[in-house]
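retry 2 of 3: previous attempt timed out while embedding 4'-deoxy-4'-aminopyridoxal-5'-phosphate. Reduced batch size to 1 and resubmitted. Inputs unchanged:
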Amino acid sequence: MLPPPITHPIFCMSQIMSDIKSGIQYMFQTRNSMTFAVSGTGHTAMECAICNAVEPGESVLTAVNGIWGERAADMADRIGGRVNTMVAAPGVFFTNAEIEQALSKHRPVLFFLTHGESSTGVLHPLEGIGQLCLKYNCLFLVDSVASIGGAPLHMDRQGSGLDPATYPQPHWEGQMHVLSCLVFFCHTKIYFVVVFSGIDILYTGSQKVLNAPPGTAPISFSERACQKIFSRRTKPVSFCLDLSWLANYWGCDGKPSRVYHHTGPVTAFYSLRESLAVLAEEGLENSWERHQKVAEYFHTALESMGLKLFVKEKNARLPTVTTIVAPHGYDWKDITSYLMKTHNLEISGGLGPSVGLVLRVGLMGCNSSKANVDMVLAALKDALKHCHKNKM
Ligand code: PMP
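retry 2 succeeded.
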Protein backbone atom coordinates (compact mmCIF):
# COMPACT_ATOMS: atom_id res chain seq x y z
CA MET A 1 0.00 0.00 0.00
CA LEU A 2 1.43 3.40 -0.92
CA PRO A 3 1.99 6.16 1.65
CA PRO A 4 -1.05 8.36 2.00
CA PRO A 5 -1.23 11.70 0.29
CA ILE A 6 -0.55 14.21 3.04
CA THR A 7 -1.81 17.62 2.10
CA HIS A 8 0.15 20.82 2.72
CA PRO A 9 -0.23 23.77 4.71
CA ILE A 10 -3.46 23.15 6.49
CA PHE A 11 -5.37 25.39 8.83
CA CYS A 12 -8.58 23.45 9.20
CA MET A 13 -8.81 20.89 12.03
CA SER A 14 -11.10 18.54 10.12
CA GLN A 15 -8.47 18.38 7.35
CA ILE A 16 -5.77 17.62 9.95
CA MET A 17 -8.00 14.84 11.30
CA SER A 18 -8.54 13.44 7.86
CA ASP A 19 -4.76 13.44 7.20
CA ILE A 20 -4.30 11.62 10.51
CA LYS A 21 -6.87 9.05 9.43
CA SER A 22 -5.04 8.26 6.18
CA GLY A 23 -1.69 8.27 7.98
CA ILE A 24 -3.00 5.68 10.43
CA GLN A 25 -4.49 3.58 7.62
CA TYR A 26 -1.04 3.52 6.06
CA MET A 27 0.75 2.72 9.34
CA PHE A 28 -1.74 -0.06 10.16
CA GLN A 29 -1.94 -1.25 6.51
CA THR A 30 -5.70 -1.18 6.58
CA ARG A 31 -8.52 0.15 4.49
CA ASN A 32 -10.91 0.26 7.44
CA SER A 33 -12.89 3.45 7.27
CA MET A 34 -13.40 3.25 11.06
CA THR A 35 -9.87 4.49 11.73
CA PHE A 36 -8.99 7.47 13.92
CA ALA A 37 -7.07 8.56 17.03
CA VAL A 38 -8.53 8.42 20.52
CA SER A 39 -7.78 11.42 22.75
CA GLY A 40 -5.67 9.74 25.40
CA THR A 41 -2.81 7.28 25.67
CA GLY A 42 -2.43 3.62 24.74
CA HIS A 43 -4.47 2.58 27.79
CA THR A 44 -7.35 4.74 26.57
CA ALA A 45 -7.35 2.99 23.21
CA MET A 46 -7.24 -0.39 24.99
CA GLU A 47 -10.26 0.63 27.06
CA CYS A 48 -12.03 2.04 23.99
CA ALA A 49 -11.63 -1.28 22.17
CA ILE A 50 -12.80 -3.40 25.09
CA CYS A 51 -15.65 -1.25 26.33
CA ASN A 52 -17.17 -1.04 22.83
CA ALA A 53 -16.63 -4.66 21.81
CA VAL A 54 -17.81 -6.34 25.01
CA GLU A 55 -21.20 -6.24 26.70
CA PRO A 56 -21.72 -7.21 30.35
CA GLY A 57 -21.86 -10.99 30.76
CA GLU A 58 -19.99 -11.76 27.53
CA SER A 59 -16.94 -13.99 27.55
CA VAL A 60 -13.52 -12.42 26.94
CA LEU A 61 -10.19 -14.20 26.54
CA THR A 62 -6.88 -12.45 27.11
CA ALA A 63 -3.43 -13.84 26.40
CA VAL A 64 -1.20 -12.98 29.34
CA ASN A 65 2.55 -13.29 28.75
CA GLY A 66 3.39 -9.97 30.37
CA ILE A 67 1.62 -7.00 31.89
CA TRP A 68 -0.62 -5.89 28.99
CA GLY A 69 -2.81 -8.99 28.95
CA GLU A 70 -3.31 -8.47 32.69
CA ARG A 71 -4.39 -4.88 32.10
CA ALA A 72 -6.81 -5.90 29.34
CA ALA A 73 -8.30 -8.56 31.62
CA ASP A 74 -8.76 -5.97 34.38
CA MET A 75 -10.56 -3.60 32.00
CA ALA A 76 -12.85 -6.33 30.65
CA ASP A 77 -13.66 -7.39 34.20
CA ARG A 78 -14.57 -3.81 35.23
CA ILE A 79 -17.16 -3.57 32.48
CA GLY A 80 -18.76 -6.84 33.54
CA GLY A 81 -17.18 -9.23 31.04
CA ARG A 82 -16.63 -12.87 31.99
CA VAL A 83 -12.87 -12.90 31.77
CA ASN A 84 -10.68 -15.90 31.10
CA THR A 85 -6.94 -15.69 30.71
CA MET A 86 -4.39 -17.97 29.10
CA VAL A 87 -1.12 -17.47 30.89
CA ALA A 88 2.46 -18.07 29.72
CA ALA A 89 5.72 -17.35 31.48
CA PRO A 90 7.21 -13.95 30.68
CA GLY A 91 9.52 -14.19 27.65
CA VAL A 92 7.55 -16.76 25.68
CA PHE A 93 4.58 -16.69 23.30
CA PHE A 94 1.55 -18.86 22.59
CA THR A 95 1.25 -21.37 19.77
CA ASN A 96 -1.78 -21.28 17.50
CA ALA A 97 -2.78 -24.71 18.85
CA GLU A 98 -2.85 -23.32 22.42
CA ILE A 99 -4.87 -20.33 21.24
CA GLU A 100 -7.35 -22.52 19.40
CA GLN A 101 -7.78 -24.75 22.43
CA ALA A 102 -8.56 -21.73 24.63
CA LEU A 103 -10.94 -20.24 22.04
CA SER A 104 -12.86 -23.46 21.77
CA LYS A 105 -13.02 -23.84 25.56
CA HIS A 106 -14.07 -20.28 26.48
CA ARG A 107 -15.95 -19.23 23.32
CA PRO A 108 -15.11 -15.55 23.83
CA VAL A 109 -16.57 -12.65 21.86
CA LEU A 110 -13.16 -10.97 22.03
CA PHE A 111 -9.60 -12.31 22.10
CA PHE A 112 -6.85 -9.93 23.24
CA LEU A 113 -3.20 -10.37 22.29
CA THR A 114 -0.18 -8.09 22.58
CA HIS A 115 1.97 -7.93 19.44
CA GLY A 116 4.94 -6.21 21.08
CA GLU A 117 5.03 -7.20 24.77
CA SER A 118 7.15 -4.33 26.05
CA SER A 119 7.34 -5.73 29.59
CA THR A 120 9.06 -8.92 28.40
CA GLY A 121 10.49 -8.04 24.96
CA VAL A 122 8.42 -10.60 23.03
CA LEU A 123 7.19 -9.99 19.48
CA HIS A 124 4.19 -12.31 19.21
CA PRO A 125 3.63 -14.11 15.88
CA LEU A 126 0.21 -13.23 14.45
CA GLU A 127 -0.18 -15.45 11.43
CA GLY A 128 -3.34 -17.53 11.37
CA ILE A 129 -4.82 -16.14 14.59
CA GLY A 130 -7.39 -13.93 12.83
CA GLN A 131 -8.55 -17.01 10.98
CA LEU A 132 -8.94 -18.92 14.25
CA CYS A 133 -10.91 -16.04 15.76
CA LEU A 134 -13.21 -16.03 12.77
CA LYS A 135 -13.72 -19.80 13.10
CA TYR A 136 -14.86 -19.30 16.70
CA ASN A 137 -16.88 -16.18 15.89
CA CYS A 138 -14.71 -13.97 18.01
CA LEU A 139 -13.14 -10.55 17.38
CA PHE A 140 -9.34 -10.37 17.32
CA LEU A 141 -7.97 -7.39 19.30
CA VAL A 142 -4.26 -6.60 19.06
CA ASP A 143 -2.17 -4.17 21.12
CA SER A 144 0.59 -2.78 18.91
CA VAL A 145 1.64 0.12 21.17
CA ALA A 146 5.27 -0.95 21.30
CA SER A 147 5.60 -2.58 17.89
CA ILE A 148 3.78 -0.72 15.11
CA GLY A 149 6.17 0.96 12.69
CA GLY A 150 9.06 -1.02 14.19
CA ALA A 151 8.01 -4.52 13.15
CA PRO A 152 5.94 -5.77 10.19
CA LEU A 153 2.20 -5.69 10.75
CA HIS A 154 -0.58 -5.67 8.13
CA MET A 155 -3.90 -5.22 9.86
CA ASP A 156 -6.11 -6.41 7.02
CA ARG A 157 -4.05 -9.43 6.11
CA GLN A 158 -1.93 -10.40 9.08
CA GLY A 159 -3.50 -13.00 11.26
CA SER A 160 -5.20 -14.44 8.19
CA GLY A 161 -2.68 -17.21 7.61
CA LEU A 162 -1.75 -15.66 4.26
CA ASP A 163 1.85 -14.59 3.77
CA PRO A 164 1.72 -10.77 3.69
CA ALA A 165 4.88 -10.70 1.57
CA THR A 166 3.43 -12.75 -1.25
CA TYR A 167 -0.23 -11.94 -1.10
CA PRO A 168 -1.04 -9.29 -3.71
CA GLN A 169 -1.78 -5.78 -2.53
CA PRO A 170 -5.48 -5.01 -2.49
CA HIS A 171 -6.51 -3.03 -5.51
CA TRP A 172 -10.13 -2.52 -4.74
CA GLU A 173 -11.80 -0.35 -2.15
CA GLY A 174 -13.64 -1.84 0.79
CA GLN A 175 -12.96 -4.20 3.57
CA MET A 176 -11.12 -7.51 3.64
CA HIS A 177 -11.44 -9.31 6.87
CA VAL A 178 -12.41 -12.86 6.72
CA LEU A 179 -10.31 -15.63 5.27
CA SER A 180 -12.96 -17.96 4.10
CA CYS A 181 -14.55 -18.84 0.88
CA LEU A 182 -18.24 -18.33 1.19
CA VAL A 183 -20.26 -20.08 -1.43
CA PHE A 184 -23.88 -19.20 -1.87
CA PHE A 185 -26.62 -19.87 -4.33
CA CYS A 186 -28.89 -17.28 -5.76
CA HIS A 187 -31.42 -17.89 -8.53
CA THR A 188 -29.59 -21.04 -9.61
CA LYS A 189 -26.25 -19.21 -9.97
CA ILE A 190 -23.36 -20.02 -7.65
CA TYR A 191 -21.39 -17.11 -6.22
CA PHE A 192 -17.95 -17.37 -4.66
CA VAL A 193 -17.02 -14.57 -2.32
CA VAL A 194 -13.52 -14.54 -0.92
CA VAL A 195 -12.93 -12.41 2.10
CA PHE A 196 -9.88 -12.33 4.33
CA SER A 197 -9.52 -12.36 8.05
CA GLY A 198 -6.96 -10.15 9.71
CA ILE A 199 -7.06 -8.18 12.92
CA ASP A 200 -10.46 -6.79 13.94
CA ILE A 201 -9.34 -4.06 16.33
CA LEU A 202 -5.83 -2.63 16.43
CA TYR A 203 -4.47 0.26 18.48
CA THR A 204 -1.22 1.95 19.37
CA GLY A 205 0.07 5.07 21.11
CA SER A 206 1.66 8.21 19.71
CA GLN A 207 4.78 8.21 21.86
CA LYS A 208 6.56 5.02 20.81
CA VAL A 209 7.85 4.47 17.25
CA LEU A 210 6.02 7.61 16.13
CA ASN A 211 8.05 9.71 18.61
CA ALA A 212 5.15 12.16 19.02
CA PRO A 213 4.20 13.45 22.47
CA PRO A 214 1.88 11.13 24.42
CA GLY A 215 -1.82 11.94 24.33
CA THR A 216 -3.28 10.47 21.14
CA ALA A 217 -3.82 6.80 20.39
CA PRO A 218 -4.45 5.53 16.85
CA ILE A 219 -7.13 2.83 16.60
CA SER A 220 -8.95 0.99 13.82
CA PHE A 221 -12.02 -1.27 13.71
CA SER A 222 -12.86 -3.82 11.00
CA GLU A 223 -16.28 -4.10 9.41
CA ARG A 224 -16.92 -7.24 11.48
CA ALA A 225 -16.03 -5.37 14.69
CA CYS A 226 -18.33 -2.48 13.71
CA GLN A 227 -21.17 -4.90 13.01
CA LYS A 228 -20.92 -6.35 16.51
CA ILE A 229 -20.47 -2.96 18.17
CA PHE A 230 -23.34 -1.25 16.35
CA SER A 231 -25.74 -4.05 17.16
CA ARG A 232 -25.13 -3.96 20.93
CA ARG A 233 -28.10 -4.34 23.22
CA THR A 234 -26.58 -2.04 25.84
CA LYS A 235 -24.75 1.28 25.59
CA PRO A 236 -20.98 1.15 26.20
CA VAL A 237 -20.36 2.27 29.77
CA SER A 238 -18.06 5.09 28.71
CA PHE A 239 -19.54 8.15 27.04
CA CYS A 240 -16.07 9.48 26.15
CA LEU A 241 -15.08 6.25 24.40
CA ASP A 242 -18.41 5.37 22.79
CA LEU A 243 -17.62 4.38 19.19
CA SER A 244 -20.83 5.93 17.80
CA TRP A 245 -19.78 9.33 19.12
CA LEU A 246 -16.14 8.94 18.12
CA ALA A 247 -17.07 7.73 14.63
CA ASN A 248 -19.08 10.86 14.05
CA TYR A 249 -16.44 13.11 15.64
CA TRP A 250 -13.83 11.72 13.22
CA GLY A 251 -16.10 11.75 10.19
CA CYS A 252 -16.09 7.95 9.94
CA ASP A 253 -19.84 7.37 10.01
CA GLY A 254 -20.70 8.78 6.61
CA LYS A 255 -22.99 11.43 8.13
CA PRO A 256 -22.81 14.88 6.49
CA SER A 257 -22.13 16.79 9.70
CA ARG A 258 -20.01 16.26 12.78
CA VAL A 259 -21.49 16.86 16.21
CA TYR A 260 -19.36 18.25 19.04
CA HIS A 261 -18.32 15.39 21.33
CA HIS A 262 -15.25 16.60 23.22
CA THR A 263 -12.52 19.20 22.79
CA GLY A 264 -9.74 17.53 20.84
CA PRO A 265 -6.13 17.86 22.00
CA VAL A 266 -5.31 20.02 18.98
CA THR A 267 -1.57 20.42 19.55
CA ALA A 268 -1.29 16.66 19.98
CA PHE A 269 -3.23 16.20 16.72
CA TYR A 270 -0.78 18.46 14.90
CA SER A 271 2.18 16.50 16.20
CA LEU A 272 0.53 13.16 15.46
CA ARG A 273 -0.08 14.24 11.88
CA GLU A 274 3.55 15.31 11.54
CA SER A 275 4.88 12.07 13.02
CA LEU A 276 2.73 10.01 10.62
CA ALA A 277 4.09 12.09 7.73
CA VAL A 278 7.66 11.38 8.92
CA LEU A 279 6.90 7.63 8.98
CA ALA A 280 5.34 7.78 5.50
CA GLU A 281 8.37 9.70 4.24
CA GLU A 282 10.77 7.01 5.47
CA GLY A 283 8.40 4.26 4.30
CA LEU A 284 7.09 1.47 6.52
CA GLU A 285 9.30 -1.25 5.02
CA ASN A 286 12.41 0.90 5.52
CA SER A 287 11.41 1.63 9.09
CA TRP A 288 10.84 -2.08 9.84
CA GLU A 289 14.20 -2.95 8.30
CA ARG A 290 16.07 -0.23 10.19
CA HIS A 291 14.59 -1.35 13.53
CA GLN A 292 15.44 -4.99 12.80
CA LYS A 293 19.04 -4.27 11.78
CA VAL A 294 19.69 -2.01 14.76
CA ALA A 295 18.17 -4.57 17.14
CA GLU A 296 20.31 -7.39 15.73
CA TYR A 297 23.42 -5.22 16.00
CA PHE A 298 22.52 -4.47 19.63
CA HIS A 299 21.72 -8.09 20.51
CA THR A 300 24.99 -9.40 19.06
CA ALA A 301 27.00 -6.82 20.98
CA LEU A 302 25.20 -7.57 24.25
CA GLU A 303 25.91 -11.29 23.88
CA SER A 304 29.55 -10.61 23.13
CA MET A 305 29.70 -8.64 26.42
CA GLY A 306 28.60 -11.83 28.17
CA LEU A 307 25.04 -10.62 28.81
CA LYS A 308 22.05 -12.86 28.11
CA LEU A 309 18.96 -11.94 26.13
CA PHE A 310 15.73 -12.74 27.96
CA VAL A 311 13.80 -13.91 24.87
CA LYS A 312 15.40 -17.15 23.72
CA GLU A 313 13.62 -17.46 20.37
CA LYS A 314 15.43 -15.09 17.97
CA ASN A 315 12.40 -14.45 15.75
CA ALA A 316 10.31 -13.51 18.76
CA ARG A 317 12.58 -10.68 19.88
CA LEU A 318 10.86 -7.32 19.77
CA PRO A 319 13.08 -4.95 17.73
CA THR A 320 11.95 -1.88 19.69
CA VAL A 321 12.41 -3.09 23.26
CA THR A 322 15.31 -5.33 24.24
CA THR A 323 15.12 -7.32 27.43
CA ILE A 324 18.41 -8.36 29.01
CA VAL A 325 18.47 -10.98 31.76
CA ALA A 326 19.26 -9.02 34.96
CA PRO A 327 23.04 -9.49 35.26
CA HIS A 328 23.94 -12.08 37.87
CA GLY A 329 25.28 -10.77 41.17
CA TYR A 330 24.06 -7.18 40.71
CA ASP A 331 21.08 -5.38 42.11
CA TRP A 332 19.36 -4.23 38.90
CA LYS A 333 18.28 -0.99 40.61
CA ASP A 334 21.95 -0.04 41.17
CA ILE A 335 22.52 -0.37 37.42
CA THR A 336 19.50 1.67 36.34
CA SER A 337 20.17 4.46 38.84
CA TYR A 338 23.89 4.58 37.97
CA LEU A 339 23.00 4.94 34.28
CA MET A 340 20.55 7.72 35.04
CA LYS A 341 22.90 9.59 37.39
CA THR A 342 26.14 9.18 35.45
CA HIS A 343 24.99 8.93 31.84
CA ASN A 344 21.60 10.63 31.94
CA LEU A 345 20.27 7.47 30.32
CA GLU A 346 17.01 5.80 31.26
CA ILE A 347 17.06 2.03 31.14
CA SER A 348 14.31 0.41 33.12
CA GLY A 349 13.91 -2.76 35.09
CA GLY A 350 11.07 -5.19 34.49
CA LEU A 351 7.37 -4.36 34.59
CA GLY A 352 4.60 -6.54 36.05
CA PRO A 353 5.63 -10.19 35.77
CA SER A 354 9.16 -9.33 34.59
CA VAL A 355 10.12 -7.21 37.63
CA GLY A 356 13.51 -8.31 38.96
CA LEU A 357 14.14 -10.53 35.94
CA VAL A 358 15.27 -8.06 33.27
CA LEU A 359 16.73 -4.75 32.24
CA ARG A 360 14.73 -3.14 29.40
CA VAL A 361 16.19 -0.91 26.73
CA GLY A 362 13.81 0.91 24.39
CA LEU A 363 15.23 2.03 21.04
CA MET A 364 12.40 3.04 18.74
CA GLY A 365 11.51 5.51 16.04
CA CYS A 366 14.29 8.06 15.55
CA ASN A 367 16.13 6.55 18.53
CA SER A 368 16.66 3.27 16.74
CA SER A 369 20.18 3.88 15.42
CA LYS A 370 23.59 2.20 15.67
CA ALA A 371 25.01 5.38 17.23
CA ASN A 372 22.49 5.11 20.07
CA VAL A 373 23.27 1.41 20.48
CA ASP A 374 26.97 2.25 20.83
CA MET A 375 26.14 4.87 23.44
CA VAL A 376 24.00 2.42 25.44
CA LEU A 377 26.66 -0.29 25.24
CA ALA A 378 29.40 2.04 26.48
CA ALA A 379 27.20 3.22 29.35
CA LEU A 380 26.24 -0.36 30.28
CA LYS A 381 29.89 -1.47 30.31
CA ASP A 382 30.69 1.45 32.59
CA ALA A 383 27.77 0.61 34.91
CA LEU A 384 28.79 -3.06 35.19
CA LYS A 385 32.33 -1.95 36.06
CA HIS A 386 31.27 0.52 38.73
CA CYS A 387 28.20 -1.02 40.36
CA HIS A 388 28.71 -3.14 43.41
CA LYS A 389 28.80 -6.86 42.62
CA ASN A 390 27.60 -9.26 45.26
CA LYS A 391 30.32 -11.87 45.80
CA MET A 392 27.83 -14.55 46.91
N1 PMP B 1 0.62 -1.57 25.59
C1 PMP B 1 1.96 -1.66 25.45
C2 PMP B 1 2.54 -2.82 24.70
C3 PMP B 1 2.79 -0.66 25.98
O1 PMP B 1 4.12 -0.77 25.82
C4 PMP B 1 2.20 0.43 26.66
C5 PMP B 1 3.05 1.53 27.23
N2 PMP B 1 4.29 1.20 27.68
C6 PMP B 1 0.81 0.46 26.78
C7 PMP B 1 0.05 -0.55 26.24
C8 PMP B 1 0.11 1.56 27.50
O2 PMP B 1 0.32 2.76 26.83
P1 PMP B 1 0.22 4.18 27.57
O3 PMP B 1 1.31 4.26 28.58
O4 PMP B 1 0.42 5.13 26.42
O5 PMP B 1 -1.12 4.27 28.17
